[in-house]
Amino acid sequence: MKKLLSTILLAFVAMVGQAQEIIINEPTFSDYLALFNAKGYMAYSFDVSQLKGCKIEMYLKAFSEGKETQSYSVLGSAYAFEPKGKKLIIGFLPAENDSTQKYCYSLEDTFTYTGSISLKPVYWASENKWMTQYHTRPFEMSSFEKEKFIPLVLCGSVWYDEKWKITRFCGENTIKPDLSSDILKFVPHYYIIGVIVH
Predict the structure, then answer these.
(1) Is the predicted pLDDT of residue 5 greater than 60, yes or no?
(2) What are φ and ψ of residue 178, in 5° steps?
(3) Residue 26, class by beta-carbon neighbours within 10 Å (0-12 exposed, 13-18 middle, 19+ buried)?
(4) Do residues 91 and 136 lie in contact, with contact meaning Cβ atoms separated by under 8 Å?
(5) CA 21 – CA 116 distance, rounded (Å)
(6) Which residue pairs from 64-73 have beta carbons closer than 8 angstroms and sit at least 24 positions apart in sequence?
(7) How far is 112 from 89, CA to CA, in rounded Å?
(8) What's the pLDDT tens digit per position in 118-140?
(9) Which of 48, 66, 167, 181 has its CA 20 to 30 A from that of 139?
(10) Is the pLDDT of residue 13 over 80?
(11) How far is CA 4 from CA 1, 7, 13, 31, 154, in A?
């Protein structure tokens, strides 16, 4: 009986030891996403496969202190494209300086455009310095109407939190299309990149 119990214990210890083993894997492309994001690369993918026969126009809106300051078709309504592929990608590249941010709009197998948006610094009172830092959030997806602006991605500035003496960009992970998300009460300056479907 003792021998049987010893054998069972040894087998159990061996199993536990195996369960705690760490094994190295070959990294996949998705393993690199955290690194890309940390360096300022962000990408949002949208399925546009149901928009065959429609044309998609790239549109941008700018807001300051909660009020819309600009609203325009990035290339003009004459440059609306019928998607040949299934995906629309809206991406952001690392900021090259404190005054501009590059973004990319890519309609799979159809069209790619890279543009830039102007950034505004925020005064970090407790550190007595100005800083420029923007973050992105996707919008909640819902049904849409043709010929009306459809918001897809927000790119917004951090704000200064007087109570905690820090800058922050925290709140909802997705933004409501009607702009009622709480985070927008605090973001001093932001852009919304979207489309109009014709």
Answers:
(1) no
(2) -85, 5
(3) exposed
(4) no
(5) 48
(6) 64/120, 64/188, 64/189, 65/188, 65/189, 66/184, 66/185, 71/149, 73/196
(7) 9
(8) 999 999 999 999 999 999 999 99
(9) 167
(10) no
(11) 5, 5, 14, 45, 65
